[in-house]
Design brief:
This protein has one domain. The protein has about 220 residues and is mostly helical. α3 packs across α8 and α5 runs antiparallel to α6.
Length: about 220
C-alpha cells in the first residue's frame, strides 16, 4: 500500500510539474509575441513620415515609451490565457480544433497590415478611417474566429483598452506618434483585431498543451 501511495504521489507530482512547464511556455511565447508586435507597430508608425530609421531615432522611441512593449506583452499573456479559459467555461472548443499555426501567422500578418494601413494611408476623414478599419476587423474575426465568445471578448477588450489608452494620453503618460483625433479613430479597431489574433494563438497553445498533457497522462497510466 505504501508503494502504491508513493507511485501515485510521484505520478501526481510529475503531472503538476508538466502542467506548470506548459503554462510557463505559453506565458513566455505570448509575452514575446506581444512585445514583438508592439515594436514592429512602433517602427511602422515612425516610418509614416520618415523612411529610414536611424539608431538615434530608435533609441528615442524606446526611451519615450519604454513601458509600452512590456505592457503589450503582459496584455498578450492575459488575453491569450483568457480566450481558452472562456471557451472551456462555455464548452466551445471548436475554434481551437480548427486552428493551426498557418492560420495564426496569416491572422498576425493581416493584423500588422491593418496597423500599417492605419498609419500610412491618408483617408478623407476620420469617420471613413474608422468605418474601413471596423469592416476589416470584423472580417478578420469572421474568417479566423467566427465564435460569439471571441466576438464578445474582442469587443470588451477593445473598449477597455481604448479607454485606458485615451486616459494615458490625457494624463500625458503616453504620446502617440500621430495626432490624437486619428488615434481615437483607429485604435479600437486595432485593439479588436489584436485581441482576435492573440486569442487564436492562446487557444492553439492551450490546445497543444492539453494534448501533450493528455498524452503524458495516458503514457503514465499505460506504464
Amino acid at each position: 500500500l505504501r508503494t502504491n501511495f508513493l507511485l501515485d504521489f510521484f505520478a501526481s507530482f510529475i503531472k503538476i510539474i508538466d502542467m506548470a512547464v506548459h503554462v510557463a511556455l505559453r506565458v513566455a511565447m505570448l509575452f514575446l509575441f506581444g512585445v514583438g508586435v508592439s515594436l514592429l507597430i512602433n517602427l511602422m508608425q515612425a516610418q509614416k513620415n520618415q523612411v529610414l530609421i536611424t539608431s538615434e531615432m530608435w533609441l528615442g522611441m524606446v526611451k519615450s515609451g519604454m513601458w509600452v512593449p512590456p505592457a503589450c506583452g503582459l496584455s498578450a499573456v492575459a488575453i491569450g490565457l483568457l480566450y481558452p479559459t472562456v471557451d472551456r467555461l462555455l464548452g466551445d472548443p471548436t475554434v481551437a480544433q480548427r486552428t493551426d499555426w498557418s492560420s495564426v501567422i496569416r491572422c498576425a500578418a493581416l493584423f500588422v497590415g491593418l496597423n500599417q494601413a492605419a498609419a500610412k494611408i491618408d483617408f478623407m476623414s476620420h469617420a471613413q478611417l474608422s468605418l474601413c478599419l471596423a469592416a476589416m476587423s470584423l472580417g478578420l474575426w469572421f474568417y479566423f474566429d467566427g465564435s460569439r465568445s471571441g466576438l464578445g471578448l474582442a469587443l470588451v477588450i477593445a473598449l477597455l483598452a481604448a479607454a485606458v489608452n485615451q486616459m494615458m494620453i490625457c494624463l500625458d503618460a503616453y504620446r502617440p506618434s500621430v495626432d490624437f483625433v486619428r488615434v481615437r479613430a483607429w485604435l479600437p479597431c486595432i485593439f479588436f483585431s489584436g485581441s482576435v489574433t492573440v486569442g487564436l494563438a492562446g487557444r492553439l497553445l492551450a490546445a497543444q498543451a492539453n494534448s501533450a498533457t493528455s498524452s503524458s497522462a495516458a503514457k503514465s497510466h499505460g506504464d
